[in-house]
Amino acid sequence: MMGFGMIGGMFLFWIVLIGLGVIFARSLFQANKEKRTNEPQSAREILENRYARGEINQEQYLLMLKDIQ
Predict the structure, then answer these.
(1) Which end of the chain has less Cβ packing within 10 Å, N or C?
(2) How many C-beta atoms lie closer than 10 Å to residue 47's C-beta?
(3) Are residues 56 and 64 in contact, defined by beta-carbon separation less than 8 angstroms?
(4) Residues 6-64: pLDDT tens digits?
(5) DSSP 55
(6) Helix, strand, coil % (nearest 5) of the chain?
(7) Rg of the chain taking only CA atoms, in angstroms
């Protein structure tokens, strides 16, 4: 009886471990799928992203914003 309990416990441990691995892998793939959208960004969104990253300063941002409106 003691031997079966240990074997059953090990079996349960591995089932839980594999299940957690599957859940983790699925969540990673789901996160990547959400990041890869095929929707093109608007000119304003691109401009806002460039400004947020510091690629352009406020003066350039406002000037380019006028151009696209």
Answers:
(1) N
(2) 19
(3) yes
(4) 778 888 899 999 999 999 988 887 765 655 666 778 899 999 999 999 999 999 999 99
(5) S
(6) 80, 0, 20
(7) 26
What tokens does 47 get? Answer: 């401009």
Please identify which residue in the block is written with the tokens 């996160």.
31
Q: Which amino acid is at 28?
A: L
Give me the number of domains the chain comprises.
2
Domain match, 47 and 65 both: yes
Helix axes 43-53, 58-68, angle to 10 degrees: 180
17 sits in the region (left: phi over 0; alpha: psi -120 to 50; else beta) called alpha
Residues 33 and 6 in one domain: yes
